[in-house]
Design goal:
The protein has about 220 residues and is an alpha/beta fold. It has 10 helices and 6 strands; from the N terminus they run E-H-H-H-H-H-E-H-E-H-H-E-H-E-E-H.
Length: about 220
């Protein structure tokens, strides 16, 4: 790892605790729309399951929920998307010691963030965590016009940082989007094991597997 000049990160469930963030949002959502339900646990479980750990398109998710949930007054999709845009960002929670780890690594390496998602939502979470200036590069898929695992988004990061693949490592939780995507252009991966199971059919093999970001400080 002596040749490494940059550490690049995923955002959701890597820097941002996406699981807790969406859970808090879901509780706020239920408090706003389902006060008429005495025991809303099944509603919470339905939303969490349908969200698919964040990989379900939100227009599709809320369209499904409009049909599935016991509303007192059936809302329009636009209303729910607006509520999501405001409340989800406001519930952003970092992974344990996330900023501390990034700032420590920034003393020795360039740092970058490559994340799939809507520009306004992703930057909203980044700013809520107060970490925008902690990275030398931020790429959001909607803004870039490319999304992981397309190798071109990783190539764009290398171009902007003026680095070669072997000079970077990428830290992320998703075996396909993060590990396989980075591997396609020769960037070594460090897999953050959170919710996504490994897929044995993948050609990528992470350099390391971690469960906490702070483990990076002994690896890099």
């Amino acid at each position: 790892m002596s040749s490494i000049k940059a550490v690049l990160f995923d955002l959701d469930n890597t820097i941002l605790d996406r699981t807790r963030t969406f859970s808090n949002f879901t509780h706020a959502f239920i408090s706003n729309y389902f006060r008429h339900i005495e025991f809303p646990q099944s509603i919470y479980e339905t939303i969490i399951e349908r969200d698919q750990d964040g990989y379900k398109d939100k227009n599709e998710l809320f369209a499904e929920l409009i049909d599935l949930l016991p509303w007192q007054a059936r809302p329009r999709l636009e209303e729910l998307m607006s509520f999501y845009g405001a409340e989800y960002v406001g519930n952003a929670i970092p992974m344990n010691r996330a900023r501390e780890v990034v700032l420590e690594l920034k003393k020795r390496y360039k740092t970058g963030l490559i994340t799939n998602g809507k520009t306004a939502i992703q930057y909203g979470k980044i700013d809520r965590l107060g970490i925008r200036d902690d990275f030398d590069l931020i790429l959001v898929s909607e803004e870039a016009g490319i999304k992981k695992p397309d190798p071109r988004i990783f190539e764009l990061a290398l171009e902007r940082l003026r680095l070669q693949p072997e000079e970077c490592v990428y830290v992320g939780d998703h075996p396909v989007n993060d590990m396989e995507g980075a591997s396609q252009i020769g960037i070594g991966g460090i897999w953050m094991k959170v919710n996504q199971p490994w897929r044995e059919e993948l050609s990528a093999r992470p350099l390391h597997t971690i469960r906490q970001l702070e483990e990076l400080l002994t690896l890099l």
